[in-house]
Amino acid sequence: MFLIKINLKLLTNLSKQSIIHNAMLLSIYEAKAKQGEKVKFSISCDLPQSILDGRECKFLSPVNLAGEYYYKNEKLFLDGVASVKLLCICDNCGEEFEKVLKFNVNEVFVESYNSHDIQDYLINQASIMIDEPLKDNLLFSLSTKLLCKQDCKGLCSVCGKNKNYFSCNCENITKEIERQEENPFNNIKNIGDK
Ligand SMILES: [Zn+2]
Ligand SMILES: [Zn+2]
User: Fold this and answer.
1) pTM value > 0.85
2) Which of 2, 23, 85, 113 could form an S-S bond across to 8 if both were Cys, CB 3.0 to 4.6 Å?
3) How many CB atoms lie within 10 A of CB 31?
4) How many contiguous H segments (helices) and E segments (strands) does the chain have?
């Protein structure tokens, strides 16, 4: 297990490069020294709430990432699984719920952007900044509907009741009205059936 956490604020005086406050640096010194050999790692990273702007959720924990990486031909290949606890609002019914979100982080880091894929991240000498790939993968996994449960029934579009807890007859009434509007004789037929 190889784990180094550095608060980048401490490096502010050393470097005039663009600084992301509290950015998480992961040392890849060992991986660079042993080309091609896999190094296990785990890291815990506090991402700012502001990255969730536009999504109906909040962080309830740091993002934990564990996995392994190896360095070969001036590239670092990282494969990990991240997890974070979130407080979310259901896209269907509007109820708050807690969710442990798990997502994969499979990324390539390069020494320079010259002739490399635009999706790659940069290696910063003997370390990589993990915030950006964590953020990108987190937001990607949040880009689908967030539901309090898989079979959330949502709200009734007529009376507004939460159909997970209350039942109403609005749907049947609406259907019946539509049927009658389509064919006024249905009504007569129904009476005849009874
Ligand atoms: Zn729901
Ligand atoms: Zn209803």
Assistant:
1) no
2) 23
3) 25
4) 4, 8
Closest ligand (CA of 150): 1
Ligand 2 centre and the CA of 173: distance in Å? 9
Structure tokens, 100:
């442990």
pLDDT confidence of residue 3: 42
Q: For 118-169, write each residue's pLDDT tens digit.
A: 778 999 889 999 999 999 999 999 988 899 999 999 999 999 999 999 999 9
Question: How many angstroms is it from 147 CA to the middle of ligand 1?
Answer: 5
pLDDT band at 64 (very low <50, low <70, confident <90, very high): very high
Name the residue with tokens 């990990």: 80
Please, are residues 98 and 12 in contact by the beta-carbon 8 Å criterion? no
Instruction: Identify the nearest ligand to the CA of 169 by its number.
Output: 2
CB 80 within 8 A of CB 66: yes
Q: How confident is the model at residue 188 (pLDDT cuts 50, 70, 90)?
A: low
CA of 47 to the centre of ligand 2 (A): 40
Look at 4 and 64; give whichever has higher pLDDT: 64
Surrounding residues of ion ligand 2, Cβ less than 5 A: 156, 158-159, 168, 170
158 alpha carbon – ligand 2 mean position (Å): 5
Tokens of 28: 């890849």
